[in-house]
């Protein structure tokens, strides 16, 4: 897989489960694409991270968002992002344990770009992250999120 990004792909993972964070880290290390992963354990910390990124004029290329988070959950995070035009262009992929139809529908209603259910099998989880990277880093045309 060859990447169209000249610099490392910056990813913000919003996830409170250390095991899931570890699986994403493992999968990203296996990629030929150079990535930088920042982790926030809830929506509030994620918004703080993104505010800092805005001050530095460099926001992530992609956000991977769990829905079930402490303090500020995924749906509230999606609402907050849409209220900030500088952040609303960042692709946000919901990556969650729920496969409930209402969660899928609500995620898209709140402008998520994709909805993925976390596989239970670690190998399948890693394969899913690799498929996400192939699609979002190599195949999709995205607006620049960097100033």
Secondary structure layout plus pairing:
Layout: E1 9-14, H1 18-29, E2 35-40, H2 43-55, E3 62-65, H3 74-82, H4 85-88, E4 92-96, H5 101-109, E5 114-117, H6 122-139
Parallel strand pairs: 1-2, 1-3, 3-4, 4-5
Helix pairs in contact: 1-6, 2-3
Describe, in plain words, how this protein is organized in 3D.
The protein is of the alpha/beta class. It has one domain: 3-Layer(aba) Sandwich (Rossmann fold). The protein is 44% helix and 17% strand. It has a five-stranded parallel sheet with strand order 2-1-3-4-5, sandwiched between helices. Helix 1 links the parallel strand 1 and strand 2 (35-40). It is globular, with a radius of gyration of 14 Å.
Short account of what is shown:
The protein is α/β, with parallel strands linked by helices and 147 residues long.
What portion of the residues fall into strands of 2 or more residues? 15-25%
Average pLDDT, all residues: 89
Strand order of the largest sheet: 2-1-3-4-5
* Termini Cα gap: 26 Å
Quaternary form: single chain
Secondary-structure element sequence? EHEHEHHEHEH
For this structure, what is the CATH homologous superfamily?
Response regulator
What would CATH call the class?
A: Alpha Beta
Main attributes?
Rossmann fold, 147 residues, single chain, 6 helices, alpha/beta, 5-stranded parallel beta sheet
